[in-house]
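thread from #wetlab-drylab

HS: before we spend reagent money on co-crystallization trials with flavin-adenine dinucleotide, can we at least see a predicted complex? here's what I'd submit
DV: go for it
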Amino acid sequence: MEKISAFWFRRDLRLDDNTGLIAALKSGKPVLPLFIFDRYILDKLEDKDDARVGFIHSRLEKLNEELQIWGSSLLVAYGKPLDVWKCWLSQFPIAAVYCNRDTEPYALERDKRIATLLQERGVEFQTFKDQVIFEGNEVLKPDGQAYSVFTPYSRRWLSRYEESAPRVQKLPANPVFFTGSKRPLPSLASMKFKASSIAIPEAAISEKTLKSYASLRDFPAEPGVSRLGIHLRFGSISIRRLVQKAIPTSKVFVNELIWREFYQMILFQHPRVVGQAFKPAYDRIPWRDDPEGFERWQKGLTGYPLVDAGMRELAQTGYMHNRVRMVTASFLTKHLLIDWRWGEAWFARKLLDFELASNNGGWQWAAGCGCDAAPYFRVFNPLNQAQKFDPKGAYIRRWVPEYGTQRYVEPMIEHRFARERVLGVFKKALAEH
Ligand code: FAD
């Protein structure tokens, strides 16, 4: 039987400028495109109408349609990756497996097991850089150490990009895909999920948004940001195309994309940040065990309108504006003195654009324990933040319609009291040895 190559889609759900897929197509063998709905990930999701699962499913349907142009189709399995691969290897004459790298701790562990299996079976395994411009070991200090501060990292990132910007690649004109695997995609229901009512933003950014990004991006009432997070997470947009488009128009936008790679680098270099403070002394802080306070925060009933607006936006849309993420995260950790890991887990459950590295980095930044030069005594005043970034209250009224009426809740904690409390608790914990 003629040998084939397999291309395993993961967080790169597109045909355009897909590095590993294009390499597989150049292998000279017909390419079998594959995807696994991973039970280790899906079984842990608490919401059975999780919009991210629905989004992946609809992207796979679209890829399947696109592949039909070449008489092929996407083979999709639902199970545990090692079991699925054993099954595929017994069904198809696969000589080589291609995929793009994912450097999250779970993905590295999974791929190590698959690599061992493939090696035992004499199948080649080739992995490629695709979802970032620079991976976690590529932008380093001149002495080879990893950066822990963003600004010098970003300078080095930009100079490396200017030296050699990565090429954008199109699918070859006549790609040869394997045509012998026509099976329907598993339905959401067969995996015990159902469709969500949450709408997914489109995978594009306009010149207009790029031009006004620097001046509007901090104002949550304005349509000033891209909402591309979910597409960057699952690769329904190419990072190379995005950077290429943004560089001439908005350095500020590119800077945000560099933050994304900075946090991925931090996670790759220091996997202990999952569960532990980047600055170890902060693991001595005696966080308050306050499930009731936590629930008021989750529901957007704190009595601080910008915090409540953000938490309700998150619950209803799977999105929260970056400025408001900073304010709500600061409120939980500083005003309520609740462990940043509780907040991190809630965002991980609700955010469409949830990304382990950026979420962890954002939470550690807000709690003061991350890789950040600013000291812990920066405590956002949520009322001042609202005046500054939502001066007309348009964002607040959109999400908290009862704001300004008798029905709106009283603040659950006084700002001045909370500020003094957190400064005292942090100071004491950080001074102890
Ligand atoms: P835009 O402003 O249009 O930016 C474009 C892209 O740049 C984003 O999609 C994202 O990929 C990247 N980006 C922008 N800002 C940051 C940043 N500060 N850090 C890392 N990447 C950035 N971002 C996530 O992608 N996933 C998360 O789970 C996540 N959790 C966060 C939690 C907290 C507590 C905080 C403070 C921030 C978090 N962020 C996270 C970063 C940032 O808030 C979001 O990336 C951004 O709001 C997404 O909206 P957008 O796509 O419209 O962003």
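DV: The longest strand covers residues 31-38.
HS: ok that's useful, forwarding to the group
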